[in-house]
Amino acid sequence: MPNKKQALAVVLAGVWITASEFARNEFVLKHYWVEHYEGLGLTFQTVPVNGMLWTVWSLLFAYIIHRLLQQYSVSQSMVLAWLVGFVMMWLVTYNLQVLPLGLLVFAIPLSVVEVGVAALIIRKIGK
After folding, report:
1. pTM of the entire predicted model
2. CA distances from 120 to 13, 26, 117 (A)
3. Which of 18, 29, 58, 125 is most buried by its number of CB atoms within 10 A?
4. What is the block-wise mean pLDDT of the chain (127 residues), using blocks of 10 residues?
C-alpha cells in the first residue's frame, strides 16, 4: 500500500491523466470520434458517466505506473505502462471497430507524453 506521499502522487498523476485524456479527446480528437461513430451509424456521446469511468481508469492507470516505478526505471515503467494502458486499449477498440485509426497520429505522441508526465509526478512527489 502506498504511504501518504505516494497516495498523493498517485492522485495527482490520476488528475493529470484525466485532464490529459479529456483535453485530447474533447478538444483535439473529438472530430475523429464523431465522424467515425457516424459512419458506424452510432452517436459519439460525452456524458457524465463516461467522465466518471475515465477518472476511475486514470486513477487505476496512475496506480499501475506507481507500482511499475517500484520495480523498474522511469523509462522502463513508461514503456510498460504505455503498452498496457494504451496499446492494449487501442487493440481492443480496433477489434471492436470503434477506433478511428487517423487519430493515432496525434494520440500516440500525446499518450507517451501523458505517461511520461504521470511517471515524473509519481517519482518526484512520491519519494
Report:
1. 0.93
2. 9, 25, 5
3. 58
4. 89 98 94 95 90 96 97 97 97 95 96 98 93
